Amino acid sequence: MIDKQKLVKIVGTGMVSDREEDLEKYSSDISFVNRVRPAYVVKPGTAGEVQKLIDLANATKTPLVPVSSGAPHFKGDTVPGNGGSIIVDLSGMKKVEFVDRARRVAMVEPGVTFEELIPLCTKEGLRLNMPLLPRKSKSVTGSILEREPVLMPGYQWDMSDPLACAGLYFGNGEEFRTGQAAGPGTLKDQWKVGAVQKAPYGPGTASLHRLIQGAQGTMGIVTWMSIRCEVLPKMQEPFFSASHDLDQLLDLMSWLIRLRMVTECFILNNTNLAAIFATDMEDYQRIKETLPPYILFYNIAGYDYFPEDRIAAYIKDIAVMNQRIGLDTGKSAGLISADGLLKKIQKPCDEPYWKLCLKGASQDIFFLTIYDHMERQIAAMKEMSEEIGYSPTDLGLYIQPIVQGTGYHCEFNLFYDPYSYTESDRVKDLSNMATKSLMNMGAFFSRPYGDEANWIFNRDAATTDALRRIKKIFDPNHVMNPGKVCF
Amino acid sequence: MALSKEIYRELEDIVGEEFICSDPAIMPSYHGSDLGAVVLPENTVQVQAIVKTCNRYKLQFSAVATGWTGSFKKDIVYIDMRRMNRIIEINEKNMYAVIEPYVITAELQAECFKKGLHFNVKGAGSNCSAMLRGHGHLDQSTSGDDRNHLAIEWVTPEGEIVRSGALGSTDEWFCGDGPGPSIRAILTSAVPPGVTPGVFTKAAIKLYHWAGPPKYDIQGLSPKYTLPEVPKNMMARYYSFPSVEKMWQAEIRLGENEICMELMGFNVSMVAANIATCNEDDERIFKRLNKEKKGPGFFVIIAGNSDNDFAFKKKALEQIVREAEGESMKSLEDPETEGILIAQCTRVTASIRETFRAGGAFSSIPIMSQRDLTIKWAIGAGEAKLPLIKAGHIVDDGGAFFGWGVEQGHVGKTEIFCKFDPANEKAKAAVEKWSKEQGRRAFDESYFALMMGEVSDDIKANMCHYDKWWIALTRAFDPNDVAPQGGPLV
Amino acid sequence: MGLEQYQGDVNMCCRCSACKFIPLQHVKSYDFSYVCPSISRFQFHSYSGGGRANIISAGLKNGFNYTDKFLDIVYNCQMCGACGVSCNYAMDMELQEPINELRIKCVAEGKTHPELERVIKTLKKTGAMVPVQGKRGDWAKGLDLKDATKEKVDVLFHVGCLTSYNKDMHKLARATAQILKKAKVNFGIAGDMETCCGGRAYQMGYEKEFLKQAKMNMSMIKKAGIKTVVTACADGYHAFKVLYDKYELKGDLKVLHITEYIDMLIKEGKLKPKKALDMVVTYHDPCRLGRLGEPWIHYKGKKIPGDRFVFDPPKEYRRGTKGVYEPPRDIIKSIPGVKLIEMERIREYAWCCGAGGGVNESNPDFAEWTATERIFEATATGAEAIVSACPWCEVTLSQAIEENESSLKVYDIVELVAKAL
Ligand SMILES: Cc1cc2nc3c(=O)[nH]c(=O)nc-3n(C[C@H](O)[C@H](O)[C@H](O)COP(=O)(O)OP(=O)(O)OC[C@H]3O[C@@H](n4cnc5c(N)ncnc54)[C@H](O)[C@@H]3O)c2cc1C
User: Fold this and answer.
1) C227 in any annotated domain
2) pTM (predicted TM-score)
3) What CATH number corresponds to the domain at position C252?
4) A182-191, B443-452, C72-81, C389-398: the lowest-pLDDT one
5) Which domains are present in chain A?
6) Hey, which of A95, A110, B285, B429 would disulfide with A141, CB 3.0 to 4.6 Å?
7) Is residue C371 part of a domain?
8) pLDDT for A225-253, tens place per residue?
9) In a 10 Å sphere around its CB, with 0-12 CB exposed, 13-18 middle and 19+ buried, how is residue C280 labelled?
10) What does C233-294 look like in DSSP terms, one character per residue?
């Protein structure tokens, strides 16, 4: 095992811990991955320290597990895959380099959370394309690296959005900057002439930012990221359309996105909508009873020029679409108001985190899919729940259109009591079974975590082989988060 | 030089004798290179077999779609993708099309328009492959470059078939990323010159809503095609501004408010080229527009999805332009001209007029990046063209540059041309010098680095040694060194 | 003349591939986007207009190497001019002309095609481009038509080789005569004295033979004092009107295609199609009536040195703008009960029937392949018949219909008019 003093020399005393309770925190999470205790937790404060840590790891063949967000963790990606690992906790790197209104971009270090960045953006008249209700401790960089789906699909032009550029050290310790940030010269040189780090492509032929996303820290460590921001609306008008018939809602939703009429736009089932608002189980039941099975939420925004006109125009046009489809639109669904939901989702989640609020834990099964398959997949999921004894009505559902409507993130949230073996075993079984069988029904698990990752990669040997060749280049000594993804 | 009989026969067995040729007669039409052979595969399996053969004999190959540009080394196997020209699917609900490399933009666009859809069209024009990456007039609302690809079917330089994203796992085309890190990182389909390692045999590209008519009712005879009227809920205008700064302000606001389907920062010389049906006309119209314009400007097309949408967009457009002291060029408001520009700039059918018609050659410095930054550089590059214009080496465009907004102004493109007669050695040398100097200045002043053609070591070093990674990547996938080795892209 | 004069033009080719497709703004579907039969059939870029320009450009620089493939490229082309039109939407350069000149050069240097040689041999012997059966004037037997070489007439009806010698095509000549008679036109024919216009020899690259025919025709015309020639064959029209003019043989002879003439007669009220025909048809523009039928432009000038490919005096290009497109359509529309639906590729960017450039003779399969494409396109419109205005189109399209067991009918426009009178 690595000598602690070597770490202390890099990051300073107080920034290296091998205390039992610290190590314990990183030994497991809410997912079902095996417990593995790290050897140390180190908290670098600068990019230079990160680089030194990587160099040391290479020299000593010590695995590094980069972590940006604070607990709780859900997906097993930050639980070491090997013993003797060092957790590189970046949550202390909290610098916000800039928020630039005219170019709609912000640059942050990995420890910056949504909670911290949002007010700075708001001040500049900007906002972030957020994931759904991230927990307070969630790192913005972490979320983007994970390719978490975002609420405003119309502004997600590419799967990699809202990543603009990133500064990082690859697994072999070499520094790299993606996109426009690559050069010429240093960031400071670029700033001097008025460059911000916005364009994601390049440098040269490759678009390497795509490699560090979805990598779960296996390619390198990101020390800053610039993030594409959107303009803060002058006015907003959120709505619900609810139905028993999911297809109707999908139909409407696809047109809302195709015609770029809406900003935030997604579907929740009554379980999830109630769970988001409920303070406890009783409250949850009370709210849920008033909700129709599926609720489409969408928001119409007006910007600096004639916001009323824009909103009025789209309300009128959407009314015509609703009529064609046979849907009603309203400002509330049961006890929940659209304004209330809008307010909630434009911030991180209040404590306690909504997924934990009901039963203490949640196992999320999520995949990407297309319009054509979704209803069948949802029906199958319900059948499997039934079979395993998990009440289908307790299944949370979240459907998020992605990349301007070219696909959907479909997520089931299985709330359970982590202290009940029966419940957690059931959820674990259901999760295994569902992943396998949904995969056979066209579900694409683009972000595989935990045990399931193996089967998922096994399905596509050619891509897996390509990824392994790439990995060898960037992390030849295999020090970056081994045991994750397909490495 | 022809291939050995053995190799030739092997390739012939793959594609059939009708679809392979190494006769010197055809070489002038293949970029004047003395190729080993030109082969025309019909499907992915044939491509794979060709690539494997190339690996076996360590023969270099290059896949080409329409092959508008590019230079190709002698003795290579030139894989002409012409016969792979099928539209596999236009998926309306999920907004993507799956196509083979030789579907040209004009074809796919015609089919998409019928369904109320369209896609990003390379500024190079609708004569180019719809499958390969590019950027152009419609980037403002349809993005550009490698950002429009979803899943890709890729024959690697070694001849393996990799199907990226959802395609590899579930046979669906809607997503090209994952599982895990995205191999789109290297499947960028670079243009020009082509440096994608291996061969793309099919790809899904994103589709966008098309608010225009299902087809244009083109009137008249070549070379003047007009529309009988401006299509409903569409409008095209050219605005010029008192300064670059004001123009940029307007661009930004139009982007933020999501007003334009197209925001093409044409200079008036390019507008003239679009409208004019011959070189002489081009010169006349340019002179006229150059007098009429207030300063730098851009061309916009707005398209409403409904009357309400159109009314809002028009009102906001006019207000934004007014605030930036922009003025519409009145002579271009004439409905016939407006119609010509709408049809031409959405179908992108006049790029040849803009580039090659005048002198037969053009040299360009293109940069995709942050628009305000690159414009700053381009002003200087434009001024540096003036002596060349004065000397009669290049076509007079007023020393202008051009460019456009991308993704509602999130990013942008700036480009600057010199059009000249390639047979005129003095002109050629002057243009080369200009190009070198301006490229170097961009780098020295930290605006951007040009990475086309030969790139000097200091540029590489100052661009995070990008080349080193690319070389490592290509080595990992191309151990026999048979795939095209890449210069990078625009 | 000669190929060398086009060096500047062929050097201008930027390899954009526009020459392969109909003008890009007109592309209305995936199915009918191509315009050049040769590249569509043979696939290698060399078979396209641009590819040919590249070959010429290199040849002029480094000399020509007449390999079998080279000649295959040269002769598998209908010389239909479509590439030039598509190119000239955007470019100021000659394309069809250098392609013609390359053929001529090949023939002049003895690099001929055996089948075409055979045809020319027949021409030399018989004055006809087709196998001769009977006499040229046989079709007119019993019609009591004037002999224009002997009698004073206002109009010479030049019938052409195919219509004269192919018995199946006699109906066209008869219909034409019937129409002219009905309109009381003082016309005559040359009967057995008629000789080939030479147009198809030109297309095949046989400039000398073409000129011989042209001179024979013009001398007969001059001798007979004929002021106006009407042809019912697009090749003949092109020869008399464009090629004779190009070689400065035409003088002030007025040349009209029968569709122009009928259109004029109808508009002057001298002809009135009255009978309803009740059919839905589509119209096929013959290349040499349409885009290639536009008048020759005599040009002499010099490239202005400098940045642009421009000339002093300004050069006007033949871009297919002034071909004969409306008269046949107006005629069809004037026939009661006939509904005209257009194909996707029409007027200046019409797809060739396949018969041009000697391809009928040198590579009949290719001609039929080309015609088959057209038949599919016509069928896709829902029309029951395809109407053309040239016997070569009719013959080639008919063969393709037969081969494909299509139910589509083919008519020449004169047949429809005659039926409707
Ligand atoms: C006048 C002009 C204007 C231009 N303007 C623009 C512009 O505005 N925007 C823009 O984006 N580009 C522009 N370009 C570049 C243009 O996109 C390229 O020249 C391109 O070559 C056009 O033809 P194509 O798409 O058919 O590709 P090709 O020329 O056939 O191919 C481009 C490159 O990709 C490689 N390639 C082709 N097919 C495959 C395949 N199946 N698999 C792997 N590699 C392949 C080839 O090796 C080739 O080098 C312009 C070019 C010209 C000449």
Assistant:
1) yes
2) 0.97
3) 3.40.50
4) B443-452
5) 1-232+448-487 (3.30.465.10), 235-345 (3.30.70.3450), 361-447 (3.30.300.330)
6) A110
7) no
8) 999 999 999 999 999 999 999 999 999 99
9) middle
10) SHHHHIIIIIIHHHTT--TT-EEEEHHHHHHHHHHTTS----S---EEEEE---TTTTGGGS
For chain C, what is the radius of gyration of the CA atoms?
A: 21
Helix (H, G, I), strand (E, B) or coil at A213: coil
CB contact under 8 A, C29 and B110: yes
Residues C321 and B222: their CA atoms lie apart, in Å, by: 6
Amino acid at residue number C263:
D
pLDDT of residue B190: 60
- Residue A307 near residue A235 (C-beta atoms within 8 A): yes
Predicted confidence at residue B195, as pLDDT, reads: 63
- Quick check: C262 and C211 in contact, CB under 8 A? no
Least confident of A361-365, A402-406, B469-473, C148-152: B469-473
Most B CBs within 10 A among A176, A444, A445, A451, hence the mutation to make, goes to A444
| Tokens matching residue C78 | 């209908």
Joined tokens for residue B13: 């067995």
Which amino acid, B294? K
Mean pLDDT of A144-163: 98
How high is the pLDDT of residue B489? Answer: 42
Alpha-carbon gap, residue A243 to A246, rounded angstroms: 7
Total tally of structural domains belonging to chain C: 1
Average pLDDT over residues C174-195: 97
Which of C21, C306, C308 is nearest residue B104 as measured by Cβ atoms? Answer: C21
Q: Which of B418, B385, B414, B198 shows the shortest CA–CA distance to A466?
A: B198
**Residues of chain A contacting B177 with CB distance shorter than 8 Å:** 147, 159-160, 210, 213-214, 446
Which pLDDT score is estimated for A477?
98
A40 has which bridge partners? A86
Q: CATH assignment of B87-209, given 3.30.465.10, 3.40.50.720, 3.90.950.10, 2.40.37.10?
A: 3.30.465.10
List the Cα angle A187/B144/B303 in 5-degree steps: 125
What residue spans define the domains of chain B?
A: 5-80, 87-209, 219-354, 359-444
SS3 A267: strand
The pLDDT assigned to B452 comes to: 75
**Fold for domain B359-444?**
GMP Synthetase; Chain A, domain 3 (3.30.300)
**Average pLDDT across chain A, whole number:** 96
Q: Is the pLDDT of residue A74 over 90?
A: no
Q: Residue B454: what pLDDT?
A: 80
ipTM of the complex: 0.96
What's the whole-number average pLDDT of chain C? 97
Asked if C33 lies within 8 A of B360 by C-beta distance, the reply is: no
Q: What is the CA radius of gyration of chain B?
A: 23
Same fold, B87-209 and B219-354: no
- List of chains touching C (3+ CB pairs within 8 A): B
Determine the pLDDT at residue A35: 86
Q: What is the mean pLDDT of residues A355-378?
A: 94
Provide the sign of the torsion angle of the four alpha carbons B388, B389, B395, B398, taken in this order: positive
pLDDT of residue B490 exceeding 50, the answer is no
Q: What is the pLDDT of residues B91-140, one digit of tens each?
A: 999 999 999 999 999 999 999 999 999 999 999 999 999 999 889 999 99
Q: Is the dihedral of CA C17, C21, C27, C30 positive or negative?
A: negative
Structural domain containing residue C148: 115-267
Tell me whether residue C102 is in a domain. Answer: no
- Fold that domain B5-80 belongs to in CATH: 3.30.43
Q: Give me the CATH code for the B219-354 domain, please.
A: 3.30.70.3450
User: Residue B65 Cα, ligand 1 centroid: separation in angstroms?
Assistant: 8
Tell me if B130 CB under 6 Å of ligand 1: no
| A203 CB within 8 Å of a chain B CB | yes
